[in-house]
Amino acid sequence: MVQLNPKRPMSQSRVAAGVARVRIAIWASISVSLSGCVLGGGPCIHTYEDPVLVIREVRGPQGIRLSPVTISGLAFAGRLVEDLAQYATPPGFNVQVVPEGLRCVVACGLGVLEGIYDLTVVALGYAPKVVRVDARYRNFDGGCPSSNSGSTEVAVVLQPAP
Amino acid sequence: MTLKDGVPDADNVSRKLAAAHATKTRHFYQSVIKGFAADLSSSAVNILRQDPLVADVAPDRPGYADTTTDTNAGWGLGRIDQRYGPSDSRFRFATTGTGVHIYVLGTGVQANHPDFGGRIGAGWTFNPAHSPTAPCNNHETAIASIAAGAEFGVARGATIHPVVIDECQWPVWESDMVAGFDWVRINHIKPAIVNFSYGLPIPAGPFFPGAVYNAAIATKNAGVLVVVSAGNHNESACYFDPLTGNLGWTPANALPLMTVAATNSADQRAGFSNYGACVDIFAPGEGISAANFTGGFVTVSGTSFAAPFVAGVAALLYEKFPQDTPDQIHYAIRDGGTDNVVGNPGAGSPNLFLYSFLPVPVSVTISGPSFVGPFMTCTWLAVPRGGRAPFSHHWFGPLNGYGISIGGSISVPAWLNLEVSDGLGGYAATSKWIDVDPNNQQIWCS
């Protein structure tokens, strides 16, 4: 994602030289006292600093780390995802579109929409495992601009194929 | 619903069936067929299909005249020409906004991007060192491409005017925002639209409502439609409340402006999007494809990018009706929006989602009492939605007249009927059952 207009504290801003700027400064001081953070005006762009869902680790029953794995049958909000390419772009990481679905080099991250994800984790020699995750961001920094950060992380254990 | 041939008093039968089963009647047909068009529940459809007088009950279908289809559009473009999701990622359009001028306030627009095809008009900058066509970030290039880009945009023939108010440093100064509005108010070419995807917290006390609020209103009052983003704080955009910490955002809080909140591809309000009664409509704003100022395209999110969908649809409308006022375009967009498809719209928000094929055909409802005392003079009002002025009204039944409202006494239960025709040649009809309690000696009208 392209990072636009990184926030800077008011104290680093240029010298105020007009009524409007004085207004903003006064408002900012009120706002700081109310909310403890610095506020101001800006573009209403929203950035995702992290993917909403991170597969932190995949292990076999003896604790063997498995990577890469394949994610198949990815569904969001009960609906099968058709455009998998959007999950293979930042802030997603270590994810690649393959014919079977998504190839995940663990740890991998995907998605930005908060909600219920259903997916099947597949690794050679192991039984596929269906996973349901309610993926939410831990942090929301609201305003104009705004951002989300802090992924929901999951660990998956696979059993050997029968 | 179509009646069988030869049904006696077909018009009356149609009206009774519609009144009994329809949640909203759109048309009564008297000549080419005998029947009506209406919103029906599935159970009502089943009942009507078993009625011995009914020949057929068929679903309505959209018709597209002289449209072009982009079969490789992003989800956002694909969603706004559909009433219901999910998006088919196909964008159909009948006009392109040719002759319409969209003023994009922000960091400038990359004029060389092929998405704009040279459709960049005169712009302005508050800083001579910062050309309107040499942007310092992607914000307005993406916005312009959503509103009017040839590949990513809604109005693919509109002219874009970049107006620099932002030097890619935070915060953006209110005084610079006002200067941008000031330039547009003086220099705009009609029909004109401003896209303003910025927000400030609502100023407190004596500084209310704020200079940018006043500047945006003054620009609108000069005949420019001003489209603004609702802001990204996941709170009401509409008011400041120190008790709850709700900041409120301006100029999103300005009722005369067109305030746009954001949805995601699942038709949910985007988690960051502001909401509230000052919001006019929702549009796609999460994971939107748009032109990148360094070339190619990017995926962007924010209410910043919901607003230009509305600006683009406004341009499509202005091409058809270039003499319209901002209020006419504003209410045509609201009238044409799709009801009740946005999940979790937020307290006070209208549950209304942008629809691009405008204006929609006229429909009408009757506002007024449905239960009256026998001696009371009551008034009923025609409430049209969609279509286009001038409207003509024909009331008939127990009361007869031709105004937007009708008053009088109804002494026995009856259907009050209304037909409306509009300036586009459209027609709509509705009926309201008026009940009367003859034993009630009180004079009342409820």
Question: How would you describe this protein?
Answer:
The complex is a heterodimer of chains A (162) and B (446). Helix content of chain A is 10%, strand content 41%. Chain A is mainly β. In chain A, a hairpin with a 6-residue loop joins strand 8 (115-122) and strand 9 (129-135). Chain A is elongated and about 60 Å long. The relative contact order of chain A is 0.23. The longest helix of chain B is centred in the middle third of the chain and has 14 residues, at 174-187. Chain B is α/β, with parallel strands linked by helices. At the A-B interface, helix 1, strand 1 and strand 2 of A face helix 5, strand 11 and strand 17 of B.
What is the structure about, briefly put?
The complex is a heterodimer of chains A (162) and B (446). With 162 residues, chain A is mainly β.
List descriptors.
heterodimer, A: 162 residues, mainly beta, eight-stranded mixed β-sheet, three-stranded mixed β-sheet, 1 helix, 10% helix, 41% strand, disordered N terminus, B: 446 residues, alpha/beta, seven-stranded parallel β-sheet, four-stranded mixed β-sheet, 8 helices, 26 strands, 19% helix, 27% strand, elongated
Blueprint of the fold:
The complex is a heterodimer of chains A (162) and B (446).
Chain A: H1 19-35, E1 42-43, E2 46-48, E3 53-59, E4 69-76, E5 79-80, E6 93-98, E7 101-110, E8 115-122, E9 129-135, E10 139-141, E11 146-149, E12 152-157
Parallel strand pairs in A: 2-11, 3-12
Antiparallel strand pairs in A: 3-7, 4-5, 4-7, 4-8, 6-7, 8-9, 10-11
Chain B: E1 2-3, H1 10-21, E2 22-29, E3 35-40, H2 42-49, E4 54-56, E5 68-70, H3 75-80, E6 91-93, E7 101-106, E8 124-125, H4 139-148, E9 159-164, H5 174-187, E10 192-196, E11 198-201, H6 211-221, E12 224-229, E13 249-250, E14 258-263, E15 281-284, E16 288-291, E17 297-300, H7 307-320, H8 326-336, E18 338-339, E19 352-353, E20 363-367, E21 371-372, E22 378-385, E23 392-396, E24 405-408, E25 414-421, E26 427-436
Parallel strand pairs in B: 7-9, 7-10, 8-9, 10-12, 12-14, 14-15, 21-26
Antiparallel strand pairs in B: 1-4, 2-3, 5-6, 11-13, 16-17, 18-19, 20-22, 22-24, 23-25, 25-26
